[in-house]
Amino acid sequence: MTPKERLQFPTAASKAELEEGTIFTPRFDRDGLIVCVTTDAHTGAVLMVAYMNAEALRLTLETGVAHYWSRSRGTLWRKGDTSGQVQTVTEIRTDCDQDALVMMVVVAGDGNSCHTGRRSCFYRRVDTPSGRELAFEPTG
Amino acid sequence: MTPKERLQFPTAASKAELEEGTIFTPRFDRDGLIVCVTTDAHTGAVLMVAYMNAEALRLTLETGVAHYWSRSRGTLWRKGDTSGQVQTVTEIRTDCDQDALVMMVVVAGDGNSCHTGRRSCFYRRVDTPSGRELAFEPTG
């Protein structure tokens, strides 16, 4: 397999194949990215939302450790390389039209996934109905 | 408030405000959309990943019922209008850089959120390490 072939994921032949098939045919957007919702394998809590390109997804599948594409830095990113917060993948799911992933992980190091030093990036709740203010969640 | 003002969300004055502030300053992408991870308020399971424009987010905040922007149809979409699967919002969270939302909902009607007739859109698991095949999850 050439390096290029390695990064090619198949395309679904039909809507039925896409939605009810058993071949993984992830759909990347015009930037070559797919959105990934990373959840805690133990609690199910949403830890972060990030993006993968084909290389990040392939490396994640091959190594069992979460890799992402950093849109802000424009680089491939093995989560935990500098922070120690390595995410070991226990399961990856895809949705009906295969343009989103849910990835369940066990977090190493201090157990955090957010660069602000929290377990989850979702540590603030929108104060509805005004929708103007945020309140900090102690469970974040 | 003019209709235009109603749809304007404030912008964070700094990175510190964005990440540690208490004003909701959602960041929409170049298409005017923000990604929303919708979870079951009872179980925490991820039900779907969808997108909102400012109007959908404003209507969701004002009515307490989930509205989205359908990228495939190019229309505003009040979830459940045709299916009866209305999603009543119990909480909305935003992430560190406020470009993603997690929304917890209670689903009416038959309790499903996926158009394929399942509770969740994430009903297939990637069969790692090959990463080529999908397996159906009964809990989907």
What do you see in this structure?
The structure is a homodimer of 140-residue chains. In chain A, strand 3 and strand 4 (75-78) form a beta hairpin. Chain A is α+β, with helices and mostly antiparallel strands and 140 residues long. Chain A has a 4-stranded mixed beta sheet with strand order 2-1-6-5. Chain A has helices at residues 3-6, 15-20, 54-63; strands at residues 34-40, 46-52, 67-70, 75-78, 87-94, 100-107, 124-127, 133-136. The first copy, chain A, is globular, with a radius of gyration of 16 Å. The mean pLDDT of chain A is 94. Chain A is built from 3 helices and 8 strands.
Largest sheet of chain A: 4 strands, mixed
Cα end-to-end separation of chain A: 43 Å
Assign the structural class of chain A, choosing from mainly alpha, mainly beta, alpha/beta, alpha+beta, or little secondary structure: alpha+beta
Q: Radius of gyration of chain A, Cα only, in angstroms?
A: 16 Å
Q: Could you report the average pLDDT of chain A, rounded to the nearest whole number?
A: 94
Multimerization state: homodimer
Strand content of chain A: 25-35%
Order of the strands making up the biggest sheet of chain A: 2-1-6-5
Poorly predicted tracts of residues of chain A: none
Main interface by residue count: A-B, 51 and 51 residues
How many runs of DSSP E, i.e. beta strands of chain A? 8
Q: Any idea what the shape of chain A is?
A: globular
N-to-C SSE string of chain A, H for helix and E for strand: HHEEHEEEEEE
Helix content of chain A: 10-25%
Number of helices of chain A: 3
